[in-house]
């Protein structure tokens, strides 16, 4: 009799420096009065970095305004403005005697084994997807052509996109689409799901995808869009998508922030 078990790929197991007490937290903050950026913004940016890197977890307590101001030799007005901004952006909350507590962004928990795009994946779990287009070009690339098993002169639509869930940057995605079999993609306005466009506008029936996931550290481009101050653990996803006729339609390399993604896999006993 078969049974189902669940395996979770959890990037919390990757090396990171946990901020689990007030002294460690305060020690990570480095406000610099010698630069143009206001001190409260420096604190705000550094605290957000710790939250989004998973170094501060949902429910963690932060020092009071007085304690933090004294430890960093700053005015309470500076710390109060920092906390007010963080509270306004929903990164922290205040709970009476419990004090200031972290409100970390929810982890996205999609299931592996189903071919779906980012838009569909987010909506299925109740998260509102959105996209920022960073680059859109028609290219001929010898390396990518070899991935698609096409001549070096083949043309591809290259998209670099920042994908967001509920307004939070989740993944920086670089995708290539074969214009030989989907020429209509050259006119695509990048709205909605690529898979829906391929099937409904290009008449291409998608069949399956081949996907790998590996641990990686964020590079400079990814640090910039995720707001990381230093390289942080991420998941690097590479996917090839095929039509029912066996032709490869899409190749994607997506870097997912490790503090917001947990992949879920359903395993069944062999018959």
TrEMBL record:
Molecular function terms, GO-annotated: DNA binding; DNA-binding transcription factor activity
Alphabetized UniProt keyword annotations: DNA-binding, Transcription, Transcription regulation
Superkingdom to which the source organism belongs: Bacteria
The HTH gntR-type domain, residue ranges: 37-105
Record-level GO BP terms: negative regulation of DNA-templated transcription
Signal peptide from the UniProt entry: none
Keyword Acetylation: no
Protein's UniProt name: GntR family transcriptional regulator
